[in-house]
Amino acid sequence: MTRASRTDGGTDTDHGHRPTAGRPVLDRAGLPAWLDPVVHAVETIEPLQLSRFLPPENGSGRQSAVLILFGEGASGPELLLMERAGSLRSHAGQPSFPGGALDPEDGDPQTDGPLRAALREAEEETGLDPAGVQLFGVLPKLYIPVSGFVVSPVLGWWRQPTPVRAVDPNETARVFTVPVADLTDPANRATAVHPRGYAGPAFLVESALVWGFTAGVIDRLLHYAGWERPWDREKQVPLDWRS
């Protein structure tokens, strides 16, 4: 059984901390102790510590959300990621968090809209059961200039893991989990360099190159959670023009 399809939760789920289907809420009760540094980071991190790309002051940009889902697998703490289909017109083949734009039925983008959107998109893209996810925090909104998206990173604890898969092969190539230990391993870290001048953190894990927005958020979370290990920032991975 692969990590991405496991069904054993490893935690007691009878504590009433499941988000309701109609109105997801933030709940930090009963989280595993190893998530304490992440909770502290969520509580203290400032927007500019996370990224220099912040939402436009005029309120423009398309509201969206991603789910940063922590679980616990055979190798310890892990993150859920997905790889976009290679046939897509933008960001083809690029690993990312599950997520997407808010729909009108998700509700207010300034309150619980991003929570509902993050769970809905994750269910639509990976097939996970939102009832097994405990949301515990939201990072400051970020901006992706190339797409005009204003992104709310929503953090969750996979209290009761359920099978996941690429629900729509036309959109998603695969769904997989990455041990946090692999993300913090200096041997798996590098700086991605794009011909257009972009340079940013990257992770070479699970036969994938994680870079861009997703790698930037992971990099900052590892740093402010105190999990980052010294790594060679001079080690570069070149990207091609299609990236």
List the helices and strands and how they pair.
Layout: H1 36-44, H2 47-50, E1 62-73, E2 76-84, E3 95-96, E4 99-101, H3 113-126, E5 133-138, E6 142-144, E7 149-158, E8 172-179, H4 180-184, E9 189-193, E10 199-205, E11 208-210, H5 212-224, E12 236-238
Parallel strand pairs: 1-7, 9-12
Antiparallel strand pairs: 1-2, 1-4, 2-3, 2-8, 5-7, 6-7, 9-10, 10-11
Could you please describe the fold and organization of this structure?
The chain is α+β, with helices and mostly antiparallel strands. 19% of the residues lie in helices and 29% in strands. The chain has helices spanning 36-44, 47-50, 113-126, 180-184, 212-224; strands at 62-73, 76-84, 95-96, 99-101, 133-138, 142-144, 149-158, 172-179, 189-193, 199-205, 208-210, 236-238. Strands 1, 2, 3, 4, 5, 6, 7 and 8 form an eight-stranded mixed beta sheet that branches. It starts with 35 loop residues before the first helix and ends in a 5-residue tail after the last strand. The relative contact order is 0.20. Residues 1-20 have low confidence and may be disordered.
Question: In a few lines, what is going on in this structure?
Answer:
The chain has helices at residues 36-44, 47-50, 113-126, 180-184, 212-224, and strands at 62-73, 76-84, 95-96, 99-101, 133-138, 142-144, 149-158, 172-179, 189-193, 199-205, 208-210, 236-238. With 243 residues, it is α+β, with helices and mostly antiparallel strands.
